[in-house]
Amino acid sequence: MALEKSIIVATALRLLDEVGLDGLTLRRLAGELGVQAPALYWHFKNKQELLDAMAAAMMSGHQSRPALEEPGKWREWLAGYAHADRAILNSCRDGAKLVAGTRPSTELFAAVERAMAGLESAGFGAGDAARGLFTVSGYVAGFVLEEQADRTRSDEERGMPDLEEFRRTYPRLMAGLTEVGDPQGDASFEGGLQLILDGMELRLKAQATLAAGADQVSQAEGETAR
Fold first, then answer.
1. Quick one: which of 86, 165, 205, 224 is 20 to 30 A from 127 by CA?
2. Do the beta carbons of residue 91 and residue 144 sit within 8 Å?
């Protein structure tokens, strides 16, 4: 079988699931492919270029994400975007770490461009659309990074404290954890995401109020000029 870029990337992603990002080396990948390591340099100049291609392949699911067709449902649409992003990053071992250390692909830039156009159709300015997307993306990446790191920790490393002592020492934190639940759980993820969306919605309403006020002032000035 001819050694092609797509085969190398697919094999590298499979190997990533087995050994993790720290264990993924070009020599190990070459052995998996049945070739010598220098053969990989015909397709990738260095390991970083390979990692970039792996991240692009993993994130390619965003290219098929539907555009926002109903501006009034921007919040539900963006929540779906965040959930899809989390699922994609969790589709591979160390997926969040892989993406964090690589350059975005042109295809991913195109997906972000479509997402920004959708948010602008809902009333957001370009700046706030970008801030909103970057904030959601950063939140998802950080959350998944903690999720994936937690999976690699042993029970001893997790070191569960004595709950009664913890409650006495940190009563506010304990009350918060009791309400939130597992910090890496689905409910916690959803709660943090909704906080971000709440902030975006307040910003959108404030912009609409300012725009309405400006229109009223402009109309009043026009009537006075007459």
1. 86
2. no
